[in-house]
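Lecture 7 notes: from sequence to structure.

We start with a single chain of 360 residues. Read the sequence below before looking at the structure.
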Amino acid sequence: MRLLQRILLGGLGALLVACPALAQSRAMSSPAALAALVNSPAPAASKKNAGVDRLQIDLAHKALIDGDYAKAKALAEPLAKRNDPAAHHLLGYLYEKGLGVRADIGAALSHYGDAAIGGNVDAQLALGVLAFEGDGVYPDYERAAGWFRLAAAQGDPRADVRMGLLYAEGLGVAQSSVAAAHHFAKAAGKGDAEGQFWLGLSWLNGDGLPQSYRKAATNFEAAALQGHGEAAYHLALIHDSPVLGAPDEKKAASYMRMAAASGFPPAFAAMGLMVHRGDADGLAADWFEKGARAGDPQSAFLYAVALFEGDGRAKDIVGALTIADQLIAAAATPDPLKAQAAALKKTIRARTPGPLTLRN
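Now the structure, written as tokens:
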């Protein structure tokens, strides 16, 4: 699932023809890649909690959502003493996050464990994530897979997405693109946006499935309509390319704008280039600046170019050099982009005679 990364420079051109080119690596090598998928406790109660006061656990969940953690804890504790799985999960969440109590991973694991044994899917997912992250010690991918598999067996699409990601990277399970695509398809079939997105990537890259741009587009569209920015981004690249027939610049710009509106950083650079080539209204520099502020290095580089050229902004050589220096110094900047930032500095120096001052 490791996707190619290329740099947008003179325009979208060939890059947009090769749809995966701008895709961000979504590898599971970092705990954050999975933790980002974790949801807060679901307000809905487990069906296995029959016989307890449902109103009380609902009120506890409402207090949690409202930020009244002391009230949430007070309401959940009596239910937890009666082995209510939803109450145990809520208390585990409070202790894990340190909400209204001192963070205590041991207490969190104890409550999550009681909830998970009682069939609470949210607790099973939480235990899987903690195992993946290492519980503050070291990761146990096999244990994480065990918890996710248990939750997936109960039909939870979030668990299927997690299992798919583990299979894609071979963490805790034997690597299998086919198994990964199977789990993504199960989640997508239940209308889960993450499942639709990952299934779209599987079709796009031919990972575990025959490559199909049309099926990739179908899944990306389903996810994008649920507000999934990265799916909208990929869909925009597909429509801007000839893989489905004649490129549709209008659709491409519409979906790229949707991706940018969701806050997906790489979409700002692409949207700016679409504006620059006349496929959308506005100023390209506006999009580049937004992307730079969102932390996207490609947008930052293009904004530096705009400042240097005075394209959509007042010419600002010092500002352009400052951004270039920041890109070169940042560890997260891809090496090809660092080289381009260095080349930009060289160009600026060559075109700016004499020492640079604030007047420049």
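Residues 1-50 have pLDDT under 50 and may be disordered. Keep this in mind for problem set 3.
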